[in-house]
Amino acid sequence: MAQTLSVSDAVELAVVERSGFIESRHAGAAIVLDPEGTPVLTLGGVDQPILPRSSLKPLQALACVTAGAALEDERLVLATGSHSGTDRHVAIVRDILDAAGVEESALGCPPAWPGDSATRDELIRELGQPDRLRMNCSGKHAAMLLACRASGWDTDGYLDPSHPLQLHIREVVERLTGAKTLATAVDGCGAPVYAMPLSALARAIHRIGTSSERSPFALHRSAGLLVQAVRAHPWAIDGPGRADTIAIESLGVFAKGGAEGVMVMVAPDGTTVALKILDGSGRAATVIALTLLVRIGALAAADVAQTLTRLPLTISGGGQDVGSIRPTV
Amino acid sequence: MAQTLSVSDAVELAVVERSGFIESRHAGAAIVLDPEGTPVLTLGGVDQPILPRSSLKPLQALACVTAGAALEDERLVLATGSHSGTDRHVAIVRDILDAAGVEESALGCPPAWPGDSATRDELIRELGQPDRLRMNCSGKHAAMLLACRASGWDTDGYLDPSHPLQLHIREVVERLTGAKTLATAVDGCGAPVYAMPLSALARAIHRIGTSSERSPFALHRSAGLLVQAVRAHPWAIDGPGRADTIAIESLGVFAKGGAEGVMVMVAPDGTTVALKILDGSGRAATVIALTLLVRIGALAAADVAQTLTRLPLTISGGGQDVGSIRPTV
């Protein structure tokens, strides 16, 4: 059976401290590429395969664009986002569906409650139900439907790994990672997701994060526009008060978390981090990535320290702060 | 700084599989004692310290009883439970507070939403707010207040580690574990919690789980009554549809999970498991404990297989089951 790194290939990346006692630890693998794309730091088995989950979205969004989906600005960010389902996010997903000329029912992602708790509570008070638009991946799915329309592909069956859209996405993924995909899995939202070495994911994200919108290559131009759009609209890729949004708006990084403890991040100078927490927890992923970027000199320690105060890293005891989740990299 | 086992002391206990790809792993330590209390299986660093978190509650509840708190049946279960905050749970906590002659405001645990989602949603529709009674540890806190009243101790400051109640609890903890506590931390609810080797926690839980209500020793009689009460009222220790409740009602075990991946379980024959998932996740804790009890012959494989269908172990992709959380012990 195909599988991710073993426990013995993982190294400690963060600890959870309560009243001065380290009670839990997160292990995994992490890789840092310098602005030229050369690995400058590796921790754990970075050449072992992982499922990138939503950290694959920038690659999937670019493939939708190269398949003809006309996506710019906030619509492009929603295509690459794991949004928190606020009304503002959902309005943009509707715009993409309108542009595709399809109904909400065409979305292949399952119905879900929004991740944003205020929005969820409002829906509960209004006796609302989970729906497909509120699901965090609905922007990606709307973009996939738009790409199908632009390329003349049937929107039925667009999530099948052998559908022309998914074959095209896989080709773009392999071009950007420079590696053959190692296995195909069904992501939480129903879309195909591909296993790849963590180092290959880092390579692809580095290419995207350092692309210019003035590149002679269409894929690179699109990548440059995507990163520019994410930095211009950080609220859209995640949500108010959430980790990717906070990291992007306060530090100008490109950041995209994925389920099961995956994180990719590109500093303004092009330094790139990719990491996988082996146990699948995301609670330490952002702080580990930011700390690695400080360690390598790509972000200023004081700026990151300021950002960390906005992340949910404190450990509570009786309503008081009694500890923290802290990186050990 | 005092700390739990290291990454290199932890061994794989479970994996998360999606579409045939193992994408995450949980490592930790586990120990199994036979009905006589002799260790018969150890995995990882079982003599390293852990914070037992809510798996300490059976010991704390017994200390409240030996301090004079008159607790029986469902009240005794609430004293040792991490309840899901339904109206039925809260009514019993109120009964304990009434018996102590104190108001809800005397509870030292912080306000919280109930863990039971239907109850939470109903509160949100009624524009309710988090409160102390709904907090999962409110039964333990009510029992502590009742113990203070019974012993003539001030209820103010009952969470201070130097308060007579907490000194008494610590003494009972050390008697049951047979070990000096290694560090004192503030638990999520504000109560003191003590670091101890995982093997010492297992020893204490084995003593409790094999005690008879007809023992010549008062502490053992109380322990026998506690375990009997938990088996008679499994809904009260956790909540409808939740893991400890399901395991107890379907298999007759005594089970008590704790935050950050701790689990203790005693089979009807007295075989005892204690485990700590190093990363703090509880999603695989119950299935690992049950699997160890099957492996050692204390539970029937077919019975456990039936119970596992009721636990949230399936991995979803597009609303379909595409994998599972499965033990590797």
Automatic annotation (TrEMBL), chains A, B:
Protein name, please?
L-asparaginase II
Q: What is the superkingdom listed in this entry's lineage?
A: Bacteria
Q: Which organism is it from?
A: Microbacterium invictum
Q: One matching Pfam family, short form?
A: Asparaginase_II
Task: Output the PANTHER family linked to this UniProt entry.
Answer: L-ASPARAGINASE, PUTATIVE (AFU_ORTHOLOGUE AFUA_3G11890)-RELATED
